[in-house]
From TrEMBL:
Residues 1-21 form the signal peptide. It comes from the Bacteria. InterPro entries: DUF3298, PdaC/RsiV-like_sf. This is DUF3298 domain-containing protein. The lineage of its organism: Bacteria, Pseudomonadati, Bacteroidota, Chitinophagia, Chitinophagales. Pfam families: DUF3298 (PF11738). It comes from Chitinophaga alhagiae. Residues 288-366 form the DUF3298 domain. The keyword Signal applies. Keywords: Signal.
Length: 378
């Protein structure tokens, strides 16, 4: 399953900030913190919107660098308006390489070189086909962002020579230009947790401090005999929080808020929430802003059609036979729109088993145009 590959890059970043002596606490050491908190200076972290052509079609990519070897990206064919998530292949040290997160049986890849003049050039490869691409930075009609990152860790048992480690990393984008004052204020408000100051340096620390505080609270639950035998790996907890740009073409801005955490057990938990802003109308959009009353059944039918196509489910097979918990899919509030349609996102366990993964379904406005408010139909 394709999860948060960027975490390994953050691990590299974290430990690069530590001396060898910090990685393994000495006997009797009392300080539980590794002392590693990193916010790389510009231009080592950044957001860039790139435009160019792929297979003769115009495309737009949103590229974020959150550390020396940590990248995230989304891209879309402009005429289709369907965002596709890209995962950084951290094991490829010779070029900037991404794998598309599309369907379970596809492994489409971008492989190329990101040059100093903000040009990403290389080859896209899919099943029995490949195309050259060349993308250049283009900020026309785009909000400009600065990237903030932080990482920290603590030893669960400071005096134990085999103490487990808790690691938390966070990155986020913060608007710095490309739009008027009210629009920038709206974006900042959407990025700021309730009750927190609009200060990105503090916002990026909040989930880290919360996670590590909760981690230290379970110290008394640890069976040190497991650690002595080398069987205490489940106490090595980690968490990753990221805010990424999915769509950034005036007047629509879409932000992904992605979370991953491992707190013991068989596997970690993850999921993404989305925020879509209409900067022209100065609103964070809800489903009711985009779709007319009574649109639920039509959206449900379109979501079922999208699911069957994406996962190659035969029309005669009930969705709850092998795939979903229920026979039908209902629209939820975890959605966003582009200029061509709406995307609904379902986290693991929400409508299907964990093994199915996060389910993201695109509904073209053309299929449900009678139920779309005219403001969002072109």
């Amino acid at each position: 399953m394709k999860l948060y590959y960027g975490l390994s890059a953050f691990l590299a970043l974290l430990f690069a900030c530590q001396s060898p002596g910090q990685r393994q606490p000495a006997a009797g050491q009392q300080d539980d913190s590794t002392g590693a908190s990193a916010t790389p200076p510009a231009p080592s972290v950044y957001y860039k919107r790139l435009k160019g052509a792929l297979a003769g079609q115009p495309v737009t990519m949103h590229l974020i660098r959150t550390g020396p070897a940590a990248f995230d990206a989304w891209y879309a064919y402009d005429k289709q308006g369907i965002p596709i998530q890209l995962f950084h292949n951290v094991t490829d040290s010779t070029q900037l390489s991404f794998t598309e997160y599309t369907t379970p049986d596809e492994d489409n890849t971008f492989k190329g070189i990101l040059s100093a003049n903000d040009t990403y050039k290389g080859t896209w490869a899919g099943k029995n086909r490949s195309y050259d691409f060349e993308l250049r930075e283009d900020t026309t009609g785009a909000v400009l962002f600065q990237v903030f990152t932080s990482a920290d860790s603590v030893r669960l048992l400071p005096t134990h020579p085999k103490s487990p480690l808790g690691l938390a990393v966070c990155s986020m984008v913060w608007p710095v230009g490309g739009a008027d004052g009210p629009s920038l204020a709206l974006i900042k408000k959407a990025l700021t947790p309730l009750g927190a100051p609009e200060e990105p340096e503090k916002i990026v620390r909040q989930p880290i401090d919360t996670f590590l505080r909760d981690y230290k609270a379970v110290r008394d639950d640890v069976d040190t005999s497991e650690l002595n035998k080398g069987t205490g790996a489940s106490w090595n907890w980690d968490a990753q929080t990221e805010t990424r740009v999915v769509w950034n073409t005036w007047p629509l801005l879409v932000l992904e808020h992605a979370d991953y955490s491992f707190t013991g057990g068989a596997h970690g938990n993850y999921g993404s929430n989305y925020t879509v802003l209409d900067l022209a109308r100065q609103k964070v959009l809800q489903v009711s802003d985009v779709f007319k009353p009574g649109s639920g059944p039509a959206l449900g039918a379109a979501l079922e059609k999208a699911f069957r196509k994406k996962y190659a489910v035969p029309a005669k097979d009930p969705l709850n036979k092998r795939y979903l918990f229920e026979p039908h899919i209902q629209p939820n509030n975890n959605f966003y729109i582009t200029d061509k349609g709406a995307v609904f996102n379902y986290m693991p366990y929400e409508i299907a088993a964990y093994a199915v993964g996060q389910i993201t379904l695109f509904v073209p406005f053309e299929e449900v145009k009678n139920y779309v408010n005219e403001a969002y139909l072109k």
